C-alpha cells in the first residue's frame, strides 16, 4: 500500500509507504515531505489534487487543503491493498495578499499627486495647488484619502488568512490600479478641466463620498471583529447594513465612487467606477454563495448580495 | 439545446457561404486581371496550355502581389496603374460582403456566452475585436483614401482572412452538421474528414502571419491620415472631461500585437498539435481491423 505523488502528465515524483511509522497523516505532513524529499517546492506553492473520477473521497472537491487529514480524502491504511495517487502542481512563486494589497494601492496614492503636479505645475506642487480649481483640489484630497485609508486598513484592520496568490496577480493588479490611477488623474488634473456646473451636485458628491468611506471603514471594522486574531474562523456578520446585504463594504465602496464622480464628472472616473463595480459584483456573488453554502439555513434568506433590496 | 445545435449549423453554413463568396470574388478578379493583362484575353480559350511556364509565372506574380509586404511590392513593380486599378476593383467588389460577414462573427461571442460553443471567451473576443477594429476603423473608414494607405495591405488581409475562414467554416459546418444529426453522439473525428482537420489546423501557419502583418501595415499606413483628418478625435475642454486621440489608441493597439501575436500563435500551435494527434489516433484505431467495433474510450470534445 503506497501513496504516489505524480505530475499531471503522470510522472512519479515521490512514492511513500502508508504503513511505515513516519507515514504522513495530514495534508500538511504530505506537503512537508514533498518539500523535503520530493520536488523541493515549498508548501505554499503546492497544489495537490485527487485524480478526477476517484469516488473514494467523501469531500466533493478533489483539492487537498492544508489543515485536513488525509483520511478525509479517502487515503487511509485500512482501505484494502489499494495504491493511491495524488496529483501535484507547482503554482509558481507566491506573494502574500497583504503584500499585493500594499503594492497595488501604493500606485494610486503616489501617482495621483504626481500627475496633478505634472499637469498643473510642471515640477512644482505648490504652484500646481495654487493653479488648480477648487474641484481639482477636492478630487486630489478625496483620492489620496481613499487610498491612504486602504493602505492603513491593509496594515492595521484586515485579517488575512495565510493565503497567498501567484506573483502574476501582483503584476496584473498593479497594472490595473496604477494604469487607471494615471488615466483618471490625467483628466481630473487637466489644465483644461471643466468643473461641474452645479454646486449642489458637487456637494452631494462630497456627501456620498464621505458616507461611502466611513461606511466602508465601519464594515471592515466589523468584519475584523468576526475573526479573532490568528484564527481562520468564519462567522455570519450581523448588524448595520449587513442585515440587508452580504457585502456592504462593496456597497459603500461604490457609493464613494459615485460621490467622487459627482464631484469631478469625468468619463475616465466613470469607467473606473464601472469596471470596479463589475469586479466587486463578481466577488460579492462568490462571497454570498460561500455564506449560503457554509451556513445553509442559518443564513438570513432575505439578504441580497450587494445592492439592498435589488441584487 | 436542439435549437442551439440547429442554429449553430445554420450559422456556420451561412458564414461558409459568405466567405466562399468573398474568396471566389477575389479569385475571379485576379483571374480576370491575369487574363487581360498577362495573356491579352487568350487564357479562357486555351485551357490545355494552362500550365505553360510563362503562365505559371504570371500566376505566381499575382500571388506575390497578394501577399508581399509593401516595400517588397514597390520593389517588384506592383505600383503600376494596372495593378492599382485591379486592387481597387477587388476592394469595390469585396468590401461590403467582408464587412457584413466579419461583423456577423460577433454572434460567436454570444454563442460562447450562451455555452452553445465551447471556446475561451477571452481569446475569441480578442481575435474578433482586433479584426473588426482594423476592418471598420481603418479599411472602411479610409476606403476613399485607397491609394494613399489602404493598398498597403488590403489584398493580403482579404486573401489571408477569406482563405482561413472558408476552411474554418467548412470544418465547423461539417462538425455542427454531424453534431446536430447525431445529437452529439459522434466525436469530432468521426464527423470531420481527416484532410479537413489537417487543413483547418495547418493553413494558419502561413496565413496567420500574412494576415497579421497586413493588419499592422494597414494601421501604420493609415496613421498619418488619422492625424491629418482628426479622425475620431475628441479634445478637451468639454463637460464630460474626456479626450480621445485615435492615433494614440492605434499606437497602443500596435504595441498590443507584441505580446498578443506570440500568445495567439502559440495557442493555435498547441491546438494544432492536440487536434492532429487526436485525429491520427482516431485513424489508427478505426483502421486496425481487430478493433473496428470498439470506440475510442476518451472521445475528443466537440469544440
Q: Structural class from helices and strands of chain A?
A: alpha+beta
Number of discrete helical segments of chain B: 11
- The overall pLDDT average of chain A reads 89
Number of strands of chain B: 0
- Count every beta strand of chain A, where a strand is a DSSP E run of 2 or more residues: 6
* Estimated radius of gyration of chain A: 25 Å
Radius of gyration of chain B in whole Å, from Cα?
Answer: 22 Å
**Chain-averaged pLDDT of chain B:** 85
Shape of chain A: elongated
What is the string of SSEs of chain A from the N terminus onward? EEHEEEHHHEHHHH
- Kindly report how far apart the N and C termini of chain A lie: 52 Å
Count of all domains of chain B? 1
Return the structural class of chain B. Answer: mainly alpha
What would the principal axes of the Cα set say about the shape of chain B? globular
What percentage of residues of chain A falls in helices of 4 or more residues? 40-55%
Strand and helix map with partners:
The complex is a heterodimer of chains A (about 300) and B (about 300).
Chain A: E1 2-7, E2 12-17, H1 27-36, E3 46-49, E4 84-90, E5 94-96, H2 97-121, H3 125-131, H4 134-156, E6 164-166, H5 167-188, H6 199-226, H7 248-264, H8 267-295
Parallel strand pairs in A: 1-4
Antiparallel strand pairs in A: 1-2, 3-4, 5-6
Chain B: H1 2-38, H2 53-67, H3 70-75, H4 81-104, H5 106-114, H6 121-140, H7 154-181, H8 188-191, H9 194-200, H10 204-229, H11 246-287
Amino acid at each position: 500500500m503506497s501513496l504516489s505523488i505524480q505530475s499531471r502528465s503522470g510522472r512519479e515524483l515521490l512514492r511513500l509507504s502508508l504503513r511505515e511509522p513516519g507515514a504522513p497523516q495530514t495534508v500538511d505532513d504530505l506537503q512537508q515531505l514533498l518539500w523535503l524529499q520530493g520536488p523541493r517546492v515549498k508548501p505554499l506553492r503546492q497544489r495537490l489534487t485527487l485524480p478526477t473520477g476517484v469516488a473514494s473521497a467523501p469531500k466533493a472537491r478533489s483539492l487537498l487543503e492544508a489543515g485536513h487529514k488525509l483520511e478525509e480524502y479517502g487515503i487511509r491504511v485500512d482501505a484494502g491493498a489499494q495504491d493511491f495517487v495524488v496529483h501535484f502542481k507547482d503554482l509558481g512563486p507566491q506573494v502574500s495578499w497583504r503584500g499585493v494589497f500594499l503594492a497595488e494601492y501604493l500606485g494610486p496614492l503616489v501617482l495621483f499627486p504626481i500627475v496633478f503636479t505634472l499637469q498643473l505645475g510642471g515640477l512644482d506642487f505648490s504652484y500646481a495647488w495654487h493653479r488648480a480649481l477648487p474641484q481639482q483640489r477636492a478630487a486630489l484630497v478625496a483620492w489620496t484619502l481613499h487610498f491612504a485609508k486602504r493602505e492603513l486598513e491593509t496594515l492595521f484592520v484586515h485579517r488575512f488568512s495565510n493565503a497567498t496568490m501567484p506573483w502574476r496577480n501582483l503584476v496584473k493588479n498593479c497594472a490595473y490600479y496604477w494604469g487607471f490611477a494615471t488615466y483618471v488623474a490625467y483628466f481630473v488634473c487637466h489644465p483644461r478641466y471643466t468643473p461641474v456646473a452645479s454646486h449642489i451636485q458637487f456637494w452631494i458628491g462630497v456627501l456620498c463620498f464621505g458616507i461611502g468611506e466611513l461606511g466602508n471603514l465601519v464594515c471592515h471594522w466589523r468584519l475584523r471583529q468576526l475573526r479573532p486574531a490568528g484564527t481562520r474562523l468564519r462567522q455570519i456578520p450581523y448588524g448595520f447594513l449587513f442585515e440587508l446585504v452580504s457585502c456592504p463594504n462593496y456597497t459603500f465602496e461604490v457609493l464613494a465612487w459615485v460621490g467622487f464622480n459627482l464631484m469631478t464628472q469625468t468619463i475616465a472616473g466613470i469607467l473606473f467606477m464601472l469596471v470596479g463595480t463589475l469586479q466587486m459584483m463578481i466577488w460579492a456573488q462568490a462571497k454570498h454563495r460561500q455564506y449560503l453554502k457554509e451556513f445553509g439555513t442559518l443564513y438570513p434568506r432575505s439578504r441580497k448580495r450587494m445592492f439592498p433590496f435589488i441584487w | 439545446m436542439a435549437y442551439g445545435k440547429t442554429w449553430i449549423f445554420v450559422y456556420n453554413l451561412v458564414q461558409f457561404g459568405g466567405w466562399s463568396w468573398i474568396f471566389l470574388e477575389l479569385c475571379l478578379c485576379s483571374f480576370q486581371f491575369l487574363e487581360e493583362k498577362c495573356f491579352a484575353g487568350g487564357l479562357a480559350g486555351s485551357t490545355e496550355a494552362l500550365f505553360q511556364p510563362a503562365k505559371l509565372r504570371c500566376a505566381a506574380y499575382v500571388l506575390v502581389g497578394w501577399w508581399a509586404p509593401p516595400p517588397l511590392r514597390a520593389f517588384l513593380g506592383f505600383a503600376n496603374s494596372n495593378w492599382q486599378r485591379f486592387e481597387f476593383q477587388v476592394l469595390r467588389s469585396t468590401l461590403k460582403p467582408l464587412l457584413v460577414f466579419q461583423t456577423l462573427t460577433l454572434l460567436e461571442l454570444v454563442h460562447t456566452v450562451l455555452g452553445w460553443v465551447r471556446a475561451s471567451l477571452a481569446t475569441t473576443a480578442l481575435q474578433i475585436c482586433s479584426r473588426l477594429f482594423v476592418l471598420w476603423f481603418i479599411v472602411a473608414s479610409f476606403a476613399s483614401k485607397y491609394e494613399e494607405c489602404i493598398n498597403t495591405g488590403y489584398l493580403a488581409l482579404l486573401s489571408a482572412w477569406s482563405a482561413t475562414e472558408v476552411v474554418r467554416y467548412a470544418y465547423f459546418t461539417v462538425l455542427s452538421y454531424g453534431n446536430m444529426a447525431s445529437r452529439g453522439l459522434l466525436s469530432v473525428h468521426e464527423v470531420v474528414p481527416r484532410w479537413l482537420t489537417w487543413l483547418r489546423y495547418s493553413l494558419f501557419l502561413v496565413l496567420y502571419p500574412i494576415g497579421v502583418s497586413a493588419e499592422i501595415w494597414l494601421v501604420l499606413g493609415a496613421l498619418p491620415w488619422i492625424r491629418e483628418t482628426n479622425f475620431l478625435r475628441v479634445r478637451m475642454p468639454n463637460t464630460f472631461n474626456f479626450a480621445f486621440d485615435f492615433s494614440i489608441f492605434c499606437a497602443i493597439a500596435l504595441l498590443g500585437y507584441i505580446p498578443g501575436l506570440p500568445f495567439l500563435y502559440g495557442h493555435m500551435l498547441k491546438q494544432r498539435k492536440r487536434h492532429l494527434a487526436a485525429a491520427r489516433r482516431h485513424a489508427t484505431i478505426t483502421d486496425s481491423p481487430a478493433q473496428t467495433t470498439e470506440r475510442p474510450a476518451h472521445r475528443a470534445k466537440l469544440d
